[in-house]
Task: inverse folding
């Protein structure tokens, strides 16, 4: 049980008025026994309650309820809880502030040319003096869509028009819009196993039924994919075929062509999520599935947040008109269009000479960081497939490692990572973890890895024995 | 039938392959007869298809299917259409480009101090050099949330903490998040009659059942509200009690207190949408309902897009922790947080001296525009309640006016307005219209109103007789 769950549990009891203001809370020891969790977990939950002004500490005697922590009216709980759904555990891990952040697949802001970027951004106000006073259209800025249309057509042979391109507020919104527009409760959705966990949250929330498709270093088992499509008539296959998150695997070109044929044959739409395409270390990755799709079955999602500008949150969905109509409806319900300012800044920066130069440097910097992480791991005996792009290592730890305990110990040592089961709707991959090498600098990477490796118990179970 | 519907209908038939490339389409006359719509409507739909490269004109002989307009694979249609929901007719009207835009409740960009605003925005890059490289948290920038917490507490006696405030990408997202977090299929939702139509779209999409609550110049009928709450146990009451859109009415303070009591008694959450509060012409409006709520039943939504910066799209949702937890989950599924850049620019601009001075001028400018519109209407004999704030007039036209026809004629004369039935989930208010006075300058307002009034047929029905 993670401390965040204990925190939520205690917060709810406090707000419900189970203790009154200035009343003493149970001791760490007794609560630990009551909840069957480690004392450290309770301790950290109490510390977080203290940080959030829900409890206070008095003379080292224990924890007391803070004034104002109890909700004035208690009956509110039930109607809310009724509508509750399972939260995203990934964002809970991400919310913890630590020194060694291996959990977020997020670029180190120091790797971005912040100064030049700001100069470009400032120019936008001179080019478009009324940009702050103007709404974007729902579909996105025409000038940006036209520039991206040319870009995708030249680079990936998409042959689209600007009407087939939607600007979204980050790829999370794009995934959510596609799902809301096309998936209904009880629809079958194919997802990779493992897969990007916020996508699991989106499909879960819609009441879709997910069927996992295993992803291996050299692709899917296409016979399995065909069998699943034939047997279950899935509405959608959500995939991340290039430098896949969390594994780093890439689906080869021949499989891409065949997947598009299968989608067409079995009328299964494909949502192709492609945030890491530009972060390759060796050869360029194969063309997107969208390139091979002549029948309108592929919806292509491309985030630019990962490496252009997280602070702008610009992503793109590309699809044919019949699907676009549905996406536009979903978008108009979700917001009134992505902010025009973000779109204009992105437009002028992304297509600049500077950005293209920067990208070359960025790939080198990330490859170096990947190699540092791999070097640190070289004596552990753990196994992983060295990725040819992306931000992450997908690592198999020895089977005896208890993942929840390792996560707890890591957080206590100011380190975060993501346990493998978070990437699986069936909660498998109990021995796997994802470590991201994109956020920390080289020195921090070395030190963080040294510390992390020392926390993983040897097979004899030294750490476990000590408890 | 609007020309956009005819356009969509034709586009679908074209893409489905009903005609082959270079085949001639039916004549305007025959299609007009087939669809029972005016010839002008068909003509405009054809023009739009031409503009979008779906058809071409040959030797004045008629319209022909453009190469590439037919979708290569036709079976795509059915799975898509299955998932289709009713689109937002409001956004369809808004999409039409005209000279006299009375339909959008949107501020004229020339009324914003664009130059000063851009200067503030540029400073943000110096203050936060890495702002473009940094994600916001899901809940929103801490500095902004703290500033807004002080603002709401000082101005409206909210007494909240920064944890009880969520930054959203516009009020449309806030409404959508609250609905997704709290409303399930077949839940009962109270909505004002008339109400903000994109909210109808949100509830419709979730499969909620809407019950209308009439809004009058001096408030609701509270006996009716209580009866509805008692009888139907609604989950939520979505309201816009201050300078209500479209009517401009404001719920008096006594009713606000009583509504909060009713919400508590019948456990009905209230979503209080409050985008027009700062645009008052006389006295300040009464406090929000949230001010009177001690039990956590009110969720307060405040958009700043309307008058601070449409190009940033910053809105706020304020609620107590139990509801906030659900909103945060919905937000983390919808996107990865509102872009940090927008939040930082908003922070520095909104709390500036300049902004507060600007607001005084803005109120005067809008009141002048309102008066110009009312003066133009003074000889028509139409009826309306003069609003004390907001962007809109809600006007009753003579009963004989056929609204679809008037809209069509207006668009043909480069004028848009919003028919009343769009604001009603039961499609009533057939004689009412909303005219917004916020977008056009004084001269355009006078000329546009002169033209519009001349299009509304006199009771004898001259225009109708001519057809």
Result:
């Amino acid at each position: 049980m993670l401390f965040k769950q204990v925190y939520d549990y205690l917060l709810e009891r406090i707000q419900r008025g189970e203790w009154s203001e200035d009343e003493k809370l149970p001791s760490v020891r007794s609560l630990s026994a009551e909840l069957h969790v480690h004392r450290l977990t309770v301790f950290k939950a109490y510390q977080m309650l203290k940080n959030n002004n829900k409890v206070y500490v008095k003379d080292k005697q224990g924890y007391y309820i803070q004034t104002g922590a109890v909700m004035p009216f208690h009956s509110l709980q039930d109607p809310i809880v009724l509508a509750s759904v399972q939260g995203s555990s990934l964002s809970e891990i991400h919310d913890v502030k630590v020194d060694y952040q291996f959990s977020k697949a997020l670029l180190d802001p120091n790797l971005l040319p912040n100064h030049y970027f700001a100069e470009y951004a400032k120019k936008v106000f001179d080019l478009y003096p009324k940009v702050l006073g103007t709404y974007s259209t729902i579909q996105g800025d025409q000038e940006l869509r036209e520039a991206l249309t040319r870009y995708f057509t030249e680079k990936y042979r998409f042959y689209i028009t600007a009407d087939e391109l939607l600007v979204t507020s980050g790829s999370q919104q794009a995934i959510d819009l596609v799902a809301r527009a096309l998936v209904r409760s009880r629809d079958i959705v194919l997802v990779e196993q493992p897969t990007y966990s916020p996508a699991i949250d989106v499909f879960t929330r819609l009441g879709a039924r997910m069927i996992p498709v295993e992803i291996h270093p050299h692709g899917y088992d296409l016979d399995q994919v065909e069998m699943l499509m034939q047997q279950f008539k899935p509405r959608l296959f959500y995939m991340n075929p290039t430098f896949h998150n969390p594994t780093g695997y890439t689906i080869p070109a021949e499989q891409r062509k065949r997947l598009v044929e299968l989608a067409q044959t079995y009328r299964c739409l494909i949502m192709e999520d492609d945030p890491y395409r530009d972060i390759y270390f060796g050869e360029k990755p194969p063309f997107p599935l969208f390139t091979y799709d002549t029948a309108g079955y592929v919806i292509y999602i491309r985030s630019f947040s990962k490496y252009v500008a997280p602070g702008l949150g610009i992503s793109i969905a590309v699809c044919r008109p019949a699907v676009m109509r549905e996406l536009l409806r979903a978008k108009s319900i979700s917001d009134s269009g992505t902010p025009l300012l973000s779109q204009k800044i992105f437009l002028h920066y992304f297509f600049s000479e500077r950005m293209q130069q920067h990208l070359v440097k960025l790939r080198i910097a990330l490859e170096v960081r990947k190699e540092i992480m791999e070097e640190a791991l070289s004596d552990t005996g753990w196994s992983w497939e060295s990725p040819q792009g992306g931000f992450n290592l997908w690592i198999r730890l020895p089977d005896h490692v208890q993942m929840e305990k390792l996560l707890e110990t890591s957080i206590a040592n100011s380190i975060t990572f993501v346990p493998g089961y978070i990437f699986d709707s069936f909660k498998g991959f109990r021995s796997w973890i994802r470590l991201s090498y994109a956020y920390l600098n080289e020195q921090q990477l070395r030190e963080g890895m040294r510390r992390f490796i020392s926390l993983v118990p040897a097979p004899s179970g030294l750490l476990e024995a000590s408890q």
